[in-house]
Each structure stands twice: as structure tokens, then as C-alpha cells.
Amino acid sequence: MFSLFQAKNNCYCAFCKTPRRIYRKKNISVMNVVASAMAAIVLMFAIWQEFDPRAIIAFVVCLAISETFVQIRWRLSVVCRTCGFDPILYTKDPEAAATKVRAQLDMRKEDPKYLLAKPLNLPAIPAAKAKALQAKEKGKLVSRSI
Ligand SMILES: [Zn+2]
Q: Could you give the 3-state DSSP secondary structure of residue 145?
């Protein structure tokens, strides 16, 4: 039971600094391989009632499913649920990540559920830089009033 809690890691969002949890596990472990082997053996006896080489295929399929599941779970846990910041997308395409955060913050602004919520601790932009940015692209800055 304790290992369930250890697999998760406490961290802070890189953008809004909200404390949150991320799955530390990115790929399957020995435990998943053992579980897949057990599932394949159970399936083998359920289908053929004897040792059958086709169980290897079932084993590989089980491995593939658990690997996909662990990776998707990790990928989803990386994205901040409060502000929508996605660090992996940010390293590849900062513009797309900014668009996603903006959409999430706009949604948050309209949702009455967040009216009384604690305001997000968004990074402040120095006045001089904000002016320069505003001159470059009008109205595209993320509002800090949320
Ligand atoms: Zn965040």
C-alpha cells in the first residue's frame, strides 16, 4: 500500500506554482512484466487448458497495453490541472503551450466555481517588458487578474 504513495511525487507547477502531484513512473517496471506474464499464463490455461506457445503473443500484448497505460497516465499527470501548463509541450512548442494556458485561464475566469477561489500565483512580467510585449502583439498577454 505504501508503494502506491511512493510512485507519486510532490512538486510545484512551473507556471502557476500550485503544489501538485506527478506520477514518477514513466515506463513499466519489473512488477508490470511479472503481472503481464501472470495474466498471459491465466489466459493460456483459460483458452487452451495446457501450455501453448501462443501465450507468448498474449504476454506481449499485455506488456504493450500496460506500457501504453503507464505512459498515458504519466503524460496526463504532467499537465497542470489548475492553469493547463504542459511542460513537455512547452519544450517543443512554447507558442502552443501558451495558447493552451490562455484557454484554460479564460475557462477559469468564466467558471463561477472559481470566483471565490484563491487567485493563482502567476509569474509577473516586469513593466518594461510588458510594454515591449504589448507593443509587439496587442492584447495577447495572459491576464494577471485571475
Ligand atoms: Zn499550473
A: coil
